[in-house]
Amino acid sequence: MEEKEIVQKSLEERFDEQNQKKQSKAPYTLFSVIGFIGAIVSVGMGFYKMFVYESEDDSYFSSESVNAYVGGDAYNYIINASYATGYFVLALVCMVFACTMLILNNINKHK
């Protein structure tokens, strides 16, 4: 009888360990997906700031400015380049975070 109880407890412990591994996998995967989505959005915003520019002086059909902040074109290009650089750095940080979460997930899975 005691041998059966020992085997039963051993099986229950293994089952609990496997459930804990499955539960601990979910946050890493979720955070890595969030990081990758953040990187994609940041890269998109950076390219938008770089390539979409329209001031009131350039357009005859529209009176709305797009990514124009001050009166001079050169100043607006400098401002948009700074914004784009910030978005690209943010994308890099999100990518490093997502890759770190994938690495931690892999380490936790093989523990």
Structure description:
The protein is mainly alpha-helical. The chain is built from 2 helices and no strands. α1 runs antiparallel to α2. It is rod-shaped, with a radius of gyration of 26 Å. The mean pLDDT is 83.
- By helix and strand content, what is the structural category? mainly alpha
Main sheet attributes: strand count, strand direction, barrel closure: none
What's the tally of helices?
Answer: 2
Beta fraction of the residues? under 5%
Ends apart, CA distance between termini: 33 Å
In N-to-C order, the SSE pattern is: HH
Measured as a percent range, the helix fraction is over 70%
Number of strands: 0
Question: What is the fold's blueprint, element by element?
Answer:
Elements: H1 2-51, H2 73-109
Please give a handful of descriptors for the protein shown.
111 residues; mainly alpha
Can you describe this structure in just a few lines?
The chain has 111 residues and is mainly α. The protein has helices at residues 2-51, 73-109.
